[in-house]
Amino acid sequence: MLPTPSLPWFELARFRRSRLTRLAVLAVAIVPLFYGALYIWANIDPTGRLDHVKAAVVNEDQMVEVAGRDGEKQPVAVGRQLAANLVGNDDRNNYDWVLTDPSDARSGLADGRYKAVLTIPRDLSKAATSTSGDPDAAVQGRLDLKTNDAVNFVNGQIADRILEAAKSSLNAQVTRTYLDNLYLGFTDIKSSLEEAADGAGTLADGAGRLGTGADQLADGTRQLSSGAATLADGNRQLAGGAERLDAGAGQLANGLDQLQERTAPLPGQTRQLADGAEQVAGGVAQLDAVVQRVVGGINGSTGQVREQLQTLETSLRDAAQRCRADGVPAATCANLDAGADAAAAARTQVGTVTGRADEIGRQSARLNDGAQRVAAGNRQLADNVPTLVGAIGQASDGADQLQSGTSQLATGAREAAGGADRLASGASRLTDGADQLSDGAGALRDGALRLQDGLTDGSEQVPDYTKDQREKLAKTAATPVTDAADRLNAVASYGEGLAPYFMALALWVGAMSIYLLLRPVSARAIASTTSAVRTALAGFVPGAALSVVQAVLLVGVLLGIVGVDASQPGLLLGLALLTGLVFTAINQTFIAWFGGAGRFLAIVFVCLQLTAAGGTYPIETSPSFFGFLHALLPMTYAVHGLRAATAGGTTGVAFDVFVLVVFAVGALALTALAAKRRERVTMTALHPTLQV
Q1: CA-based max dimension of the chain
Q2: ABC-2 type transporter transmembrane domain: from which residue to which, for each copy (predicted)?
């Protein structure tokens, strides 16, 4: 059931009467363009033009010196580095930082020349390096950022984000340096542990050798203790022997004294004895000469006699044998044998006498020899006795000295025995100590080996990083989580993100402006026999035509001039057309029902829609009242659909279209009811209380 062509176009035909009315139609057509395009253009990329915003940095930081690992002082100026990073950063999303003094910074912030002032305190470098010293003295540095909300509130939020980024970068750099030193310390710790493990191994070897030496010492001290006991016994025996020797030395001294007294006359006596002995020796020599002559005579005479007796004996033996052989009477032969025996006996006696004579000669010779030696010995004795007597005197003196020495020897031996006893006792205690030392050395060796194993295990667990590894670990640990955000259907700029919201607002304002110019329902149509539905459509179609022009102009300018890069331009245009038609139908309904007051209601309605549409922040951040309205108002679905067309994605777009169509149909139905209601003229309609 569509309206006849004459009804809608008749309404538009009214604006062909003059240039002013035609300009009015043109003005209504471009109202959304002003709203939407200008708003979006103004906010197309505010964060990309922050380099046009001046900000001041005041560096009061004092440089400090920190001792490096080599002990040399190294300058650290964190504030200078931070200021240089800010001033030298030419990124479009960073302020145009200016290095200045505190006075200029304060005045510039107050009059708006500087939108932010960052003051770097004088102790920032000291605080940043405080982790390298006393832990109790470690403090956090503090950056002082000032903004002026009286100049711009959003600027304060932006400045906070910029400061947070700079602070994060500075913290990461400081942390990276700290961690690099920490990881380098791991290498030193590992090296120290390895050296300590080697030292523990050396200690264990030394303890083992100490234990062996202690065992040997214990054995030696036991031997020393036993030897000391033996020495003590020997010293006691020595003391006893020395005492006896002392007594004997005393007796010897007394005896030698007596001997000295008694031998004093010996030299004279021995000389007399020597003289007498020489006289005796002379007499004995004479006697021996006589004896030797006698013996010689005896031997000379007895030699012939013995030969004769031997011959006689032999003859008698032969005669006896012939006698018996001749048969002479045995008695006669026996007499011959008896005569031979007698001759033999006589020969034997002669030999005996000769032997005795020889013996006497030899004895006489020995006596003579002995007498000569006695005489010589007595002479020597006489010659040596004075020396002997002198030696006895010396021996007597030596015996006295010996007695004194043996007395001292006895005393020393007794003392040595006592010292040997003490030595034995000390050696016994030393043996106990050596045994304890051996046990302790064994325990020390076991402990050193366990320490070596523990240090070796600890060294293996302590990492040893190369320079590249330290830098990588420090960088990773200083910034363990990086920005890995993946924005689905991302838009290129802040303005593109707000474009759906501003487009919906512009199309609503455009719909409101349409019925500032057009009448929601034609009075002629109401007065005619046309149905209420046709009357409603007749009032809607002219407004819809203007709405289409508004939507096409708005989308065209945004895409072609402002530079909004829509992901789905066709869908964006279609949703803009649908949104404009729906908002036109709703505004028609307000005016159809409430007349001029309907425009006020349309303003209230758009305020509710703007606050409940979630066009800037998520609707969940708003109070629950707006969350309740969110799903009930058409702008919610218009913004969602336009956002999907701008950024990308079609999830929920069909439902958005369905809801908007429902709102449009509902609005047209209500407009038809309003037209039906106007077919009855009342006094209030003829004389309204308030004409808007």
Answers
A1: 240
A2: 471-673
Angle between helices 596-612 and 634-647 (to 10 degrees): 50
- Number of separate domains in the chain: 3
Question: What's the rounded Cα separation, in Å, for the pair 495 and 152?
Answer: 19
The HSE-up count of residue 429 (CA atoms within 13 Å, CB side) is: 5
Extract the tokens encoding 340: 């031979």
Q: Domain ends where: 372, 406, 425?
A: 425
| Average pLDDT score over residue span 239-265 | 75
User: Please, what is the Cα angle at 646 between 645 and 650, to 5 degrees?
Assistant: 30
Q: In what order do the strands lie in the sheet with 144-147?
A: 96-99, 54-59, 116-120, 144-147
The secondary structure of 545-582 as a DSSP string is HHHHHHHHHHHHHIIIII----S-HHHHHHHHHHHHHH
Strands 116-120 and 73-76, sheet pairing: unpaired
Whether 19 and 90 share a structural domain: no
Indicate the residue among 425, 442, 470 that finishes a domain: 425
Inside any domain, residue 652: yes
454 domain-assigned:
no
- In this structure, are 41 and 56 located in the same domain? no
CB 257 within 8 A of CB 466: no
State which amino acid sits at residue 56: A
- CA-closest candidate to residue 36, choices 690, 669, 500: 500
Q: What is the CATH number of the domain that holds 178?
A: 3.40.1710
Q: Are residues 20 and 118 in the same domain?
A: no
CATH code assigned at 379? 1.10.287
Query: What confidence tens digit (pLDDT) does each residue in 437-483 have?
Result: 878 878 888 887 888 788 788 777 777 678 787 777 766 776 676 65
pLDDT at residue 134 above 80? Answer: no
Residues 58 and 171 in one domain: yes
Q: Are 535 and 588 in contact (CB under 8 A)?
A: no
Shared domain for 406 and 510, answered yes or no, is no
Domain span holding position 381: 260-425
Contacts of 362 (CB under 8 A, 6+ apart): none
Q: Say yes or no: 25 and 136 in one domain.
A: no
pLDDT for position 273: 74
**Phi-psi domain of 275 (left: phi exceeds 0; alpha: psi -120 through 50; beta: other):** alpha
Residue 392 token pair: 């006895």
CB atoms within 10 A of CB 594: 16
Report the C-alpha gap between 564 and 44 in whole angstroms: 8
- Mean predicted confidence (pLDDT) in 66-70: 70
Query: What's the rounded Cα separation, in Å, for the pair 186 and 206?
Result: 29
Taking only the tens place, the pLDDT of each residue in 218-230 is 788 778 778 877 8
Question: Among 4, 14, 6, which Cα is nearest to 519's?
Answer: 14
User: What is the per-residue pLDDT across 588-638, written as a single tens digit (0 to 9) for each?
Assistant: 999 999 988 998 999 999 999 989 988 888 888 889 998 899 999 999 999
